[in-house]
């Protein structure tokens, strides 16, 4: 199965595309830019959703659902918002088909034209704030902490499975607060929730930072983000959390009466992560043999493959396997026993490597005799013979899963550290970007013009101003103008 | 809060609409026919989803995700399918907005017209079978057992919250099989899964049956369904499971090689339930005081309300409440302690009645002295003083929750039985329909013409031919022509 997977070193982009398809994660559909998320890919997304949903609820949020369609006039109510999204909107103009008079098939019924066109939501601030207007009267209705799991559509011209698709799945949190401070705090909290999720579950180290004005969300006063580093040295924005100020409250006239009776506009935030995280997960850890999954997000954590000739041997191995399965399930490990006789063990080994199953247990007749099994780790591609008498199998597996989770994280962290370079001149900047990639930590004069110029010259963008930016006097790497601290540049997905 | 909720006996329809809004379940949005599912309503839907999803997985299904958009030409490939859905399709024709030249705002960019219009999925058979063509080559790829949780759009002219909305949330299962028998079995299995879910979790007794040809899904060879009875004597179709024969396989050329190498078209099924179930849940059990929720689907099963004057009393009550909360959470009961001082106990009682919380525990200073609490049941609106020394509180609550679940079910079952009438003449038919409502069990001559005629005359439709239909010679209630068994008629949502 993994035979013929392109090598990362030769064509990273092709490697990614092929891996996504061959590991049964996703594929392109008949509709331009829209993907099909296949069962195996979706099962990983479901694990992500479950953890994120739990984290959102633990921080006081509840889920709700808002309409797919947004009246065109709503989208236009916040000026910079419509500016940001107008160029990529799917527009519904009619509500009926009919048979063509000439019998040529089904056509759009021209008489079923909508009075006002509807936009398929690219994000839901406008429809949600128009709803919040009716939900919020007084300080007692605040804070309002709502999240939505939904599909959204942005008509991208160049698409890539998971990373950039016309339709994608995401969650979007939309909160309303009585004070600026509280909304700012929420914005930061959700960036931290995302960072914690990425690091703890995806084994993906991230830089927490703030977007520059150029890169800010359309309609936000401030955009916080988490940025990850992929194995090809390109950055990937993995989640954003926006402080909306009173922009949407003003656009939709959402006011509340404070304790003292005074009316004021509500303060807002919004924050989201999407199926793009699947792309990050795949690109950060996988290798030329296939997917490498962190155990905490692997749908199957352990696969047991019997090595046998004939029914007799299979029966004895199955007995042992069932014993393991019971023990592993008891401690919450997801395990699969692949006793299909239509495939050979070698084929199965390659298949589960391609699918990124963290641990493989092989049991043969000699193992039964010796009281051993062979345990193979997906992340390091190493094997060991495990003596069953040495410790309970479930303890061994739990320890290994923990170790794998940590190893994957540390490997990614080490890669990122090796690919984060401080540069102090324009030549150095270009050289590092060209020959090494990764994050470039450099001084910048703080202007959008310089940022644009650098992007134009090198395709590198400012990924973020790190939250923990050190105060440091310096000179802008391009203009030589004064700067108070370094920001992170990179080429990005 | 519940003050002023209209009475069921006076205006059932208004009662329903008001209840949905006041209990914070859903509301209409700015987009015609599209609803906002509010946090409380959504939390009930999430509980339904979780149980259904578990049941689907236990029967071997996995989730996946397919595109929102369907090319117009795809929808047309199965003749009766497009016939069934063409009249209610939302159509995307453009992919960009732009600023109007006259500065009047944002308009649809006429230059960004799609080559082929896209339909917002009303159901996904076509896009899924076009995908299955690439997934299925041989018998080894079968059965393919996939489910999708998604939003769909059907441009209904008359809409009602949850019951009939332009956009709704649902799950749609789409399976592919090597033999007719296996597909038929799957169709039946999923009807039974739905029936089990309705009865066990929603406390909603249902009739399992088969749709007549007139009422069949557009593109199916056979449609099985579960039908429930609402308190106003109208029926509600709560779930359907379709045997698709080889219709979609033929439309999308999906063939497989059998073990003997012979090529044949694949057999298909599809099955779905939607947020319509929320409407059924509300209408089946609730009363003039508000929502009545079966404990198995109640987001909060128990609310504890302190009755106190001053900090001292509250402190002592809180201590006791925390003890209960720990004990209840340990046995998996969801419990909320409402110690807000901004609302009075009476207000809270009415509020939790409106929201359908199954059990309310009130604790006052005298209770603390006496070692008692007051427990109130939402379903019967009865109260009892519970002696804490008599048995552990968590056992008492678990027993009560079970009893409530059963009581609600039995009440609905009794109502349905009282509202299921065998009739043997046309006069009787009209009389029962007019004055009593409910299911009418009557003989029918088996023709679509008679069915249409009865619908035209009375608005009653054949809800189903019951699965357990008894063989019984009889005469059609309208035409007098021979019939082999009774079918269920009703007015329906």
Protein model, in words:
Chains A, B: One of its GO terms (molecular function) is proline-tRNA ligase activity. Chains A, B: Homodimer. Chains A, B: It is found in: Cytoplasm. The structure is a homodimer of 493-residue chains. By secondary structure, chain A is an alpha+beta fold. Chain A folds into 3 domains: 12-285, 2-Layer Sandwich (BirA Bifunctional Protein, domain 2); 295-404, Rossmann fold (3-Layer(aba) Sandwich); 420-490, C-terminal domain of ProRS (Translation Initiation Factor IF3, 2-Layer Sandwich). Helices cover 35% and strands 27% of the residues of chain A. Chain A has an 11-stranded mixed β-sheet, sandwiched between helices. In chain A, helix 2 (39-58) packs across helix 6 (180-200). Chain A is globular. Chain A starts with 11 loop residues before the first helix and ends with a strand. Chains A and B meet through strand 2, helix 2, strand 3, strand 4 and helix 3 of A and strand 2, helix 2, strand 3, strand 4 and helix 3 of B.
